[in-house]
Amino acid sequence: MGHVSVAEIASLLAEHDDFVICGHVSPDGDCLGSQLGLARALRSCGKNVTCLLAQADPIDYSYRFLPGIDDMVVAEQFSGKVGMFVTVDVPTADRMGKAAAELHSQAPATLTIDHHIAQGPFSAYEHIEEEASATALIVWDIAKQMGCADDADVALCCYTGIVSDTGRFQYQNTDARSLVAAAEMVQAGADPAYAAREIYQSRSRQSLALEGRMLSRMELLCDGAFAISYLLRSDFVETGAQKSDAEPLIDVLRSVRGIRVACMLREQQGSVRGSLRAKDDTDVAAIAAAIGGGGHRAAAGFTFKGSMDDARALMARTLRDLDA
Ligand code: 5GP
Ligand code: MN
To answer: Which ligand is nearest to the CA of 91?
Structure first.
């Protein structure tokens, strides 16, 4: 019980036959890449594996090229055998949605593999490396331990995780370990140009329409140190966009010269989803945690229970206070 090393994970995995692997709601490239990469490695050892989606939402187009993605099952619809329940890239059970959290609580064996700041005990076995740029880096180490690191699909999945969580090797978490592992993955058959085309050069026109609206509402605070913008539910209806079409927009805000922290707000029914990104050493995970969210020092998120006007006012106040 408790913390397990990568070597111990490999032996734990060998003891079980039926796995489910689940990630967080609104899965990103690291979440999906980690799930599918680990699934592929386990299947190549003869294991029975199902990758779960926390919610029934459509998967972001950017990641539909990932090998195995079409076989993912919505947690609520899963009724198979669970020998071991593995969570990847999930900081707390509630980030997995109700159905998956229930399966997790009933599973005979549970394992958490993650790189988020730990928020209390979660699975019976845990391997958390806060300093890892992506969960996929840890999955890659596990795959190496299992002798599956020569598999091009495992490599492509893990590569996608690293590329997306480091923002194409641009964010502060980009380090030698990430670049060395990426090189190993390319050597094993992951095609970086193919991954980049699928992840970053495949935006929908609806996403561009959202970007126009987002830019027209951009608000700069404290001489351009902070940027806030937002999208309403009506924006999605009127442009025909889906949630994932808004994903690239926080990076547009953060790309502005002089910005220290960018904040993007998206209206939901009865609540507002917030994303925060820091370009300096501001700890946005602490800001998000104060509102019940969390994440990493330079990239965090939260759900605000209330109106968009209140969320905007709160964020403007919070960001202005950073400058005080
Ligand atoms: P994003 O802005 O892309 O939704 O999230 C940025 C980072 O913060 C991701 O690592 C994500 O897992 C984490 N994060 C986002 N929302 C929440 C939340 O509500 N709770 C926690 N604990 N982490 C979050
Ligand atoms: Mn991640």
So the answer is: 1
Does the structure show a pLDDT above 80 at 1?
Answer: no
State how far the Cα of 59 lies from the Cα of 123, in Å rounded to an integer: 26
Its sign, for the CA torsion 132, 135, 137, 139, is positive
Same domain for 180 and 226: no
pLDDT tens digits, one per residue of 172-213: 999 999 999 999 999 999 999 999 999 999 999 999 999 999
From the number of C-beta atoms within 10 Å of its C-beta (0-12, 13-18, 19+), residue 2 rates as: exposed
pLDDT for 28-79, tens place per residue?
Answer: 999 999 999 999 999 999 999 999 999 999 999 999 999 999 999 999 999 9
pLDDT at residue 324, as a whole number: 78
Whether residue 168 is found in the same domain as residue 233: no
Query: 267: domain CATH number?
Result: 3.10.310.30
> What are the residues whose beta carbons fall under 8 Å from the beta carbon of 177, sequence distance 6 or more?
132, 133, 137
Asked if 89 contacts 23 with a C-beta cutoff of 8 angstroms, the reply is yes
Mark whether 217 and 79 lie in a shared domain: no
**Residues near ion ligand 2 (Cβ under 5 Å):** 30, 89, 135, 165
For residue 188, the CA-to-ligand 1 centroid distance in Å is 30
Last residue of some domain: 170, 200, 230? 200
Q: List ligand 1's pocket residues with C-beta within 6 A.
A: 24, 91-92, 95, 275, 293-296, 299-303
| Number of domain units in the chain | 2
Is the pLDDT score of 117 beyond 90? Answer: no
Range of the domain at 266: 205-322
Q: Say if residue 247's pLDDT is above 80.
A: yes
- pLDDT score of 151 more than 90: yes
Q: Are residues 82 and 223 in the same domain?
A: no
**pTM check: above 0.85:** yes
| CB neighbourhood size of 190 (10 A) | 23
**Most informative mutation of 245, 252, 302, 304 for ligand 1 (most atoms within 8 A of CB):** 302
Using the mean position of ligand 1's atoms as its centre, give its distance from the Cα of residue 26 in Å. 9
| Residue identifier of the C-alpha nearest atom 15 of ligand 1 | 301
User: 193 with 258, same domain?
Assistant: no
